[in-house]
Every structure is written in C-alpha cells, then in structure tokens.
Amino acid sequence: MLAKAYSFASWGAQARLVTIEVNVFERKSGEYGTELEDDRQSTTIIGLPDTAIRESRERVRSALYHAKIGYPKGQTVISLAPADLKKHGPAFDLPIALTLAEWAARKEGAEAGYSQKKIAAIGELALDGSLRPVRNVISCAAAARALGFKYLLVPAANAREAALIGGLNVIAASDFSEALQAYAEPETSPCVTLDRQTLFRDLPDYGCDFSEIRGQLAARRAAEIAAAGSHNLLLYGPPGSGKTMLARRLPTLLPPMNEREIVESVQIRSAKGAVPRDLKLIAQRPFRSPHHSVSISGLIGGGTQIEPGEVSLAHNGVLFLDELPEFARPALEALRQPLEDGFVCITRVSGTVRFPASFMLAAAMNPCPCGYLGHPRKKCVCPSRVVENYRSRISGPLLDRIDMHVEMPFVDYDELTSETAPESSEKIRARCLRARMIQWERYKKTPWHSNSQISSAAARRFCPMTEGAEKLLRAAVTKLALSARTYTRILRVARTIADLEGREKLEEKHLLEALQFKGFREI
After folding, report:
1. Which residues contact 69 (CB under 8 A, 6 or more apart)?
2. 423 secondary structure, DSSP code
3. Dihedral of alpha carbons 496, 500, 505, 509, sign
4. How many whole angstroms separate alpha carbon 40 and alpha carbon 318?
5. For residues 94 and 125, is the Cβ–Cβ distance under 8 A?
6. Claim to verify: residue 277 and residue 410 sit in the same structural domain
7. Which structural domain range is residue 134 located in?
8. pLDDT (tens digit per residue) in 300-340
9. Could you say which residues of the chain have pLDDT below 70?
10. Is 151 helix (H, G, I), strand (E, B) or coil?
11. 3-state secondary structure of 454
C-alpha cells in the first residue's frame, strides 16, 4: 500500500518539485527469511537526503504520537523523488508526516484521497507537533503556482511570505493536527489573504535622510545622478568627510520597488533565511555593507548548500563596500562578472545555480593609508610608493566598471554649522523618479531598465549629441587618451544628467559634468 505527497526542494533561489512516497512492509517473525519481531520498527529515507532529513524520522514520530496516530510497524521506506536531486533541510518533515498519516488512515479502511495533485506542503515539525518556519517558501509558492497546484500548506510564520505569490491558495497551520485537517479538506480551510496593493504602495521608512548631510554639494549632486541612472559610485576622501554617511542614504533616493522587484528580493532573502517578519520592511531597497574580511563565497555566494552572497542580497538595491582597498583582491575581482552581467552563476559538482545580482555599487576609500593626502590642514605621512601600492590594490578593470569617481574633501566648520537646510531625500527622489520614468519609456523594448545598463554599441544610438557636444567629446577622448570603456561610461553618465533636465540630446554642459567623474588615478 503506497501513500504519496508533494513538496519542494530548494535549489538556489528557486524550488523543484519533490514527490514523497511511503511504503510500509509489515513483516512477521521468520517471514522472508528475517528475524524481525512484530513490534520492531525500521525507517529508511532514500533519495539523497542530508542529515537534517534523516533526523526527521524522530521529529515525525513524535509529532504523530502527539496527534494520536500510530507509527507504522515493520520496515518503512520513504522515497524522495527525483532520486538524483540532493535534498537539504527540515522542510520535508510535514509532507512526510502527512504521508504516514494517510497510510495509517488507509490501513484503517478510510478513503483518504490526500495524494491527489492539488495540494503541496512544506514545514519543519517540533517534537510536540508544532510547525516551525522554513526557508525559501516564496520560491516554493511560485513553483507550486507554475506547476498547477491549487493549494500550498505552510507553517503559520511563513504564510504571509507565501501569499506574496498571487494565484495560489495558501493555507497556514500552527501545528500538525491543524495541518492534517487542512490537508484532508483544503476546500473548507481558510486561506491567507494579503493586502498586496497597500503593501506595495506604502513608502518605506529608512530612518535616515539626505538633509542630514552638511556641505559636500558636489558629492550630493553625484549621488543624485548615480541614483537617477543606477550608476556605480566610488567616493574617496579623508576620514570624517561623510563618505559612509552619504552611501548609507543612497537607498532613500532610489524609486520605490515595484511588485516584481519586491518578489525577486524576497526570494533571495528567503533562500538565505533572512525574510523580515514584518513584511512592511520588504518594500525597502536592500542595503548591504559587508565587512572587508568577507570571503569570496560570502560576497558572491556558494557554500556546501549553495546560498546567495552579498551581491545577490543587494539585488535591486545598494551594495556598499567601505574601505575598498582593504578587501581581498580575489573577492574584488569576483565582482567584475556580476557588475557586467547583473547575475552570478555558481557551479558545483551538484550543478549550477544562478542568482540575480543587479545592484548599484557604492564604494568608499581614503586617498592614502593614513587618509590625509591632499588634506588642507593635516599632513600626509605616507611615502609616494606606499600611496601607489595602496591604490594599486584596486584593479583597473574593476575601476572601469564604476561609472562615477567622486572626491569628498574635508568639510570645514562653517559648512557644518550652516543654517541653510539641505534638500531632503523626498525632493531629490522625485527628480530621480522622473529621470527613471524617461529611461523606462526609452528602454521598454530592450533588455535594459536604466542608463547604466546600456551596452557600448547602444550608447551612440540612445545618446544623440549636439554638434558642440560632439566636438567636445572628440577633443576629450583625444587629449586625455580615454579608453573605449571610459568613453561609454561618460556617455552613460551624460545621458542621465540630460534626463534629469528632461533633454533629448546631450549638450556640452552635460558632457563637461560627466567628465568630472573620471577615475581618481587620473586626478
């Protein structure tokens, strides 16, 4: 007698269908040449389970006991198909327990029709039968909808996360008894509802504002341009000039996330087990600031059970690397591919996982190891060779992928104490949003969404110039010996500056301003 249920295995930020099959061989003493007694029990789980799944036998046994359901006697074989897909984590506890409960009901003569392909289940069981939350529920919900499932049974703590995926009935349960009842009669079980329009409409509160930044008018202008076109930004200057403060406020200038972006970000966070309990926080643009001791796997992703790294957790948001030269060289070089392609491919023996990684890079560094090179009042004590070695820790190809290099000088007392109130994030964000809307309309028939993403071949097509601007750019490229990548970078930034002014063609002033953001090694 075979019982069956459906669940999902996490694979990166995606999920794959897994069929749980249970068969129990009830043996009598001496039958089939075995010496097992009638009250002896054995359970075997097959299908490449990890240690957490093998340990589910005891959690399931205890949950069935508290639900007053007897555990099968004899040899129980639990199969997780497909057999060649490695399964990880405790999310199979609930479907395994439901399958054993179905087997017990059939043994008693009940007509249990649980295994019809209309409901899937995921969840971890505690010893008392209560359900604990698991990772990657939103990806399981997306897979369930795509495969035609009508219902998805999840722990109560994961219910709102799963309900972000529309077109699927999500049933929440707090313990195994509730789950068993809902699994038997999903049509009569209440489904979780989510006010999606209110959730996606409310503006997030970041707890900081650009009006808190005093002075640094040039850097504030650069931040506005970067946010308007999603350009990567490098800030360099002495300690205390406000580099970190400005970078942490960049998300407040970015337009609100749309529904697609929110779902993508939640999928990545869920794969990492980092979905906030208060779903209101999911509307915030991600801001990730890893320490400079981060490993390649921590930055890019990987591990035994492949998980997203910081570049993917920053998807649709900002990745801030403070003290850029202090990061390990291999970790920095690993950034080149996601900065260029907008995704990360991690290959292991078990297969290849692709994580989205379309983020805005903000980096900060001192001009020299002591930090005071070029300071108007403090003397730099670093020899020229030391300064050169310090800056050479950042490779040219990586710098070429950072569109804007901005110097942040020392802020004097008068600027710090000025009573003139700087512009708030709300006002700057409104201008950035208008520029983004121009870009969305311009690139609606292309794979790009912002000026920073356009290819070098498309830059000339989408960046028409006046005659004077054409002459200026030709002179700049010739005299400054600018590379092809730098040429494209200048066009992208100038395109954003023109969009902020609502101009179709690039003018001389747009190019002159864009040329100010050339590499710090050229200053």
Report:
1. 100, 101, 104
2. P
3. negative
4. 58
5. yes
6. yes
7. 2-194
8. 998 878 889 999 999 999 999 999 999 999 999 999 999 98
9. 1, 27-40, 109-117, 198-203, 278-281, 519-523
10. strand
11. coil
Q: Where is the domain boundary, 416, 445, 474?
A: 445
Q: Which two tokens stand for residue 260?
A: 């697609």
Tokens representing 45 are 């789980």
Contacts of 281 by beta carbon, 8 Å cutoff, 6+ apart: 204
Per-residue pLDDT, 490: 93
Q: The CATH number of the domain where 57 resides is what?
A: 3.30.230.10
Binning the chain into helix, strand and coil, the percentages to the nearest 5 are 45, 20, 40
Look-up of token digits 């921590």: 298
Residue 8 — φ and ψ, nearest 5°? -140, 145
Is residue 36 domain-shared with residue 62, that is, in the same domain? Answer: yes
pLDDT of residue 523: 39
How far is residue 158's CA from residue 15's CA, in Å, rounded to a whole number?
16
Phi/psi of residue 149, nearest 5 degrees: -70, 145
Residues in the chain: 523
206 φ/ψ sector (left φ>0, alpha ψ -120 to 50, else beta): alpha
Strands 2-11 and 14-25: antiparallel
Residue type, 307: E
Q: Indicate whether 200 belongs to any domain.
A: no
List pLDDT tens digits, range 204-226.
778 889 988 888 889 999 999 99
292 and 422 inside one domain: yes
- Helix axes 93-107 and 56-66, enclosed angle (nearest 10): 50
pTM of the model: 0.88
CB 480 within 8 A of CB 496: no
d(C-alpha 493, C-alpha 518), whole Å: 11
Q: Give every strand in the sheet of 119-121, ordered side by side.
A: 119-121, 151-155, 169-173
Q: 460 and 441, same structural domain? A: no
In this prediction, residue 100 carries a pLDDT of: 93
Instruction: Please state, in angstroms and rounded to a whole number, the distance separating the CA atoms of residues 34 and 32.
Output: 6
Same domain, 289 and 358: yes
Q: Which candidate, 194, 256, 303, places its Cα nearest to that of 432?
A: 256
- In total, how many domains does the chain have? 3
Supply the pLDDT for residue 34.
Answer: 43
* 514 found inside a domain: yes
Structure tokens at 489: 């970078």
Q: What is the DSSP string of 427-442?
A: HHHHHHHHHHHHHHHH
Residue 280, helix vs strand vs coil:
helix
Burial tier of 441 (Cβ tally within 10 Å: 0-12, 13-18, 19+) = exposed
